[in-house]
Amino acid sequence: MKKKSRLLLYLGVLASSASLSTTISASDISAGKELAVQCAACHGVDGVSTDPKFPNLAAQKEAYLKLQLEAFRSEKRKDPLMNAIASGLEDKEIEDLSAYFASLKGAEPAAISAKQASLDGSLIAFPKDYEAKFTRYHRKDYDDRKQVRYFSGNAIALEGVKNGGKFSNGSYLLVEIFAAKEDADGKLIKGADGKLVAGDPKGFTAMEKQAGWGDGVADVYKNGDWRYSVFKVDGSLKPGVNEAQCMACHKPLTQTDYSFTYNWIKDFLPTQEVGYSHKIVE
Ligand code: HEC
Ligand code: HEC
Question: Structure pTM?
Answer without folding.
Answer: 0.74
